[in-house]
Amino acid sequence: MEQHKEEYQYIQRADSSLAGTKRPPKPNTIEKLPYVLINTFIIIFTVSDRNRVVLLNQYLYHRFARDVSGNVSIDTTSRPCGNESDLASSESDTSRVQRMTSSMIMNFELVVSLLGVLGSLFLGTFSTSLGRKAQLLIPISGYTVRALSILAVAFWDLPLSWLYVGCVAEGIMGGAPGVYLGVFLYVSDITPRNRKRTLGLALLEGIRGIMGSGINIASGQMIQRATFLVPASFTASGATLW
């Protein structure tokens, strides 16, 4: 009987000590420094990504126009054309070049999208075990490979089929959707579960949209004034910066 009494008193003391222990309060504000850093990252990445889209479209058009017409000038403010001496022939060549460019871009997007489904599923499934750093580094690595492949093709004038190497790497590793997935998961970690999280995600998305719309114009002017190597180098450096 005395033994049971001592056990009961010991349990009461343990419960009282646990009740007196204060748990660390959950943060009720956005962590400012991590949030500023992730916004800086998303600005650089969005500018690099949108610049890559414009660069790839214009470069493919330029390459196909050169193959079809033999002589082409870079013009991003209006529809580029090849041999302007014969208007009918020029229109026919322009339509052909546009079809070839659209077809190759569609092939690239299909490769990246189909493989990207697998990459995004992997990243989403193992996001907790991988950690947030790996969640970002894996898709950034694939994106960097594609950016470097574009730079290599533009610099050494390689066959366009080499661009598929970058598409496969980006798709398998998650690509741009995987990067944005990691960014939004990271923001959800550093924001509280209230309206401030919604505000933080909304600001992040707003910054991404503003930077993306502005770079479309700037990238076209950059290509026109400095050929393709400068924007290709800019895209590759933006991808490898982080």
Mean pLDDT: 78
Helix/strand-derived category reads mainly alpha
Q: Uncertain runs with pLDDT below 50, 5 residues or more?
A: 14-26, 80-84
Radius of gyration in whole Å, from Cα? 26 Å
Helix content: over 70%
Helix count, per DSSP?
A: 9
From the 3D structure, determine the CATH topology. Growth Hormone, Chain: A
Largest sheet: none
Q: How many structurally independent domains?
A: 1
CATH class: Mainly Alpha
The CATH architecture category equals: Up-down Bundle
Structure characterization notes:
This protein is mainly alpha-helical and 242 residues long. It has one domain: Growth Hormone, Chain: A. 81% of the residues lie in helices and 0% in strands. The chain has nine helices and no strands. Helix 3 packs across helix 7, helix 5 runs antiparallel to helix 6 and helix 5 (132-156) runs antiparallel to helix 7. It is elongated. 32% of the residues are buried. This is Proton-coupled folate transporter. The chain crosses the membrane at residues 104-124, 136-156, 162-187. It is a multi-pass membrane protein. InterPro entries: MFS_trans_sf (IPR036259).
